[in-house]
Specification:
This protein is α+β, with helices and mostly antiparallel strands. Strand 2 and strand 3 form a beta hairpin. The model has no long low-confidence stretch (mean pLDDT 92).
Length: 94
């Protein structure tokens, strides 16, 4: 599960999601058809496995998807209108 500095990788399986969260490196982008796209730190407590399972595994990503990226610059380039998580504040220095 190597992610290059500027690469954005879609997470499609629970083991991939769990590996990203366990590593705690980089950022997660969660898209949704009914709410704005949000950017989180990989270790954000607001990002939960059961939400990933519902959105990606059970519903096949029809209403939203999860992405992992190592840099905010890459996230901002692809997801220009994304909002920052109010729990983990990824826009602030760690």
């Amino acid at each position: 599960m190597t992610t290059g500095v500027g690469e954005i990788r879609e997470l499609r399986t629970l083991p991939d999601f769990e590996a990203v969260v366990a590593a705690g490196v980089g950022f997660l982008v969660v898209t949704d058809r009914s709410t704005p796209t949000h950017v989180h730190r990989a270790k954000c407590p607001a990002v939960q496995a059961q939400h990933f399972v519902t959105k990606v595994v059970t519903n096949g990503g029809k209403r939203g998807r999860y992405y992992h990226c190592m840099t905010l610059e890459a996230v901002q380039t692809r997801f220009r209108s994304a909002r920052w998580c109010g729990v983990c504040h990824p826009e602030r220095p760690a």
